[in-house]
Every structure is written in structure tokens, then in C-alpha cells.
Amino acid sequence: MAILLDGNAMAAELMAGLKQRVTALKCRGISVGLAVILVGDDPASQIYVRSKSKACEKLGIQSETFQLPERTSQTELEALIQSLNQDKHIDGILVQLPLPDHLDEAAALRKISPKKDVDGFHIENAGKLFTGQEGVTACTPKGILYMLKAAGIPLEGKEAVVIGRSNIVGKPTAMLLMKENCTVTICHSHTVDLAAHTCRADILVTAVGKAGFVTADMVKPGAAVIDVGINRIENKVVGDVDFDAVEQVAGYISPVPGGVGKMTISMLMENTVEAAERKAR
Ligand code: GUN
Fold first, then answer.
1. 3-state secondary structure of 51
2. Among the four residues 24, 168, 231, 274, which has the most C-beta atoms within 10 Å?
3. What's the pLDDT tens digit per position in 239-250?
4. Are 36 and 52 in contact (CB under 8 A)?
5. Is the C-alpha dihedral spanning 114, 120, 125, 128 positive or negative?
């Protein structure tokens, strides 16, 4: 039976440490501010944005959510980003993705000051990750690595397979695993014989968005399985992994909910506190 990677417990510990850092900044008269921009009314995005502002509240970070209508133009969105870049009370700017189809996501992200890019999505931060330079790292990948390391799972020389090649999860997670000297394979919707790859994985990360996608026969006995999927099935939230069957085979498994999701938010808080600390130096 696999050991559970308890994101709730790890996140609680992280949040306690971050609260102390926010308090230490407050003692120096420095407040920490996060601006969250949400365009349109995608219900899942609304839930994520609410949980981000709740986490800010817990830590004493000032959070401001800008809820823009679906019809918002690129110019309006970029004007808001520019004004937040100039705002000295704001340390972090987050544009909740996905944006409505008529908006240019990459162009909007490029307008965020790289220093305030707490998601690590700006091309400068993504490029730094790609070239092995210090920068802001995307929250979910950072949370995944934190979980693996906190559980003491060996990474050096191990086979890691990431299913999904998004800029938000798949690609940056692969980069971080490679930095830890894993041998990394990225699989995606065009991969031929996916199971042949996943069965070799000591570390298996799945970010697909399909419930029950990873079955027990796709998992190497003893592997660490990290489930990044968030799927709603009859009012229940589940990941990509057939949890009940896979936990019989895997060595470690992260549940959904209670796994990576909480880590993502904690890492967003960490990136925001770090941005404020950098500014204070
Ligand atoms: N949409 C899905 N995940 C994320 C994330 O980590 N950050 C932002 N901004 N949008 C997302």
C-alpha cells in the first residue's frame, strides 16, 4: 500500500513558516500585496481565485481581486497590468488562466513585470528555468518538487515521466526534475504506447484532466505517483489517477483533493512573500 503524500499537512507547515515571514515584514512596516486578475466567469477559475485570496487572508497578505467581464479587451487587460506594475503596494500579479479565447495570453503575461510575476509564467522567468538561472518558478511544479523532496523520495538518476506538456505544469515540472538529475520523458496526446513509458517511471506526474486516466497497470511497483488532475465527476473532485487501484501498486501517491492543489497555493504564497522580501532588500 502506497504512502500518502499529504498535501494538506505539508501546506499547513509551509503556511506557518510564511506567516512568520509576513509578520517579520510587518514589524519593519512592510506590507505584502497580491493582485489577482480574473477575466470572465469560468466557475473553476472562480473557485481557484477564491482559495488564493483566502490563503492571503490567513497569512495577513493584502489581496485584491480584479474581476473583469468576459468582454474585456486586450488593451484594457494590459492597462490594468501596467498600473499594477507601477503600484508600490502590489508585490505579486497573477492573471488567472485560461483567459477567454479572444485574448492573447502570452502577450498579457509578457506585460507583467518579471519581478511581480509570482506565477513564474513570464517569458523571462520561464527562460531562466529553461537555462538554469535563478528566477521565479511556477507554483504547481515547485509544489510537486517540494512534495517529492519532503517525502525523501530519491530523484538522482531516476526515471521520471510527466504526462502533459503545458507551460503551466508539464514543461516546467520536467525542467525541475531534470535539474534534480532525473532522466525525464514528457508524454502527451500524441505519444504512442503511453503505458510503455509510464511503466518505466520511478516518478510519474500526471496533468491530463481526465478522471481514471492512469490505471494500475500503467504504474511501476513502488513508483511515486503525483496527480495534478482536477476533474469534477458528479459533484466530486477527483484526479487523473484511478486512486483505489493505483495505491495498491505505487510506493507513494498524492491524493486529489488534498495533494498538489494545496501545495500550488502555498507556493504562490511563498513566491509572493519572496517578491516582497526582495523588494525590501
Ligand atoms: N490556471 C491553472 N493553474 C493556474 C496557475 O497556477 N496560475 C494561474 N494564474 N492560472 C492557472
1. helix
2. 168
3. 999 999 999 999
4. yes
5. positive
> Count of residues for the chain?
281
Q: What is the CA radius of gyration of the chain?
A: 19
* 41 is an active site residue: no
Sketch out the chain's domains with CATH numbers.
29-114 (3.40.50.10860), 139-261 (3.40.50.720)
CA of residue 248 to ligand 1 center, whole Å: 31
Residues with CB under 6 A from ligand 1: 94-97, 119, 139-140, 168, 264
Least Cα distance to 59 among 255, 225, 281, 267 occurs for 267
Average pLDDT value over all residues in the chain: 98
Mean pLDDT on 231-246: 96
Nearest C-alpha neighbor of 217 from the set 246, 178, 194:
246
Q: Determine the residue of 42, 52, 96 to mutate for testing ligand 1's pocket, defined as the one with the most ligand atoms within 8 A of the Cβ atom.
A: 96
Other CB atoms within 10 Å distance of the CB of residue 12:
12
Model pLDDT for residues 103-146, shown as the tens digit of each residue = 999 999 999 999 999 999 999 999 999 999 999 999 999 999 99
Residue 18 — very low, low, confident or very high, per pLDDT cuts 50/70/90? very high
Burial call 41-73: b when 16+ CB within 10 Å, e when fewer = ebeebeebbeebeebbeebebebebbebeeebe
Threshold 0.90, pTM exceeds: yes
Give the pLDDT mean for 190-207: 98
Q: 101 to each of 70, 74, 119, 126, 149, how far by Cα in Å? A: 10, 11, 20, 22, 37
Catalytic residue status for 104:
no
Residue nearest to atom 8 of ligand 1 (CA): 96
Neighbour-count burial of 36, counting CB atoms closer than 10 A to its CB (0-12 exposed, 13-18 middle, 19+ buried): buried
**Does the active-site annotation cover 119?**
yes
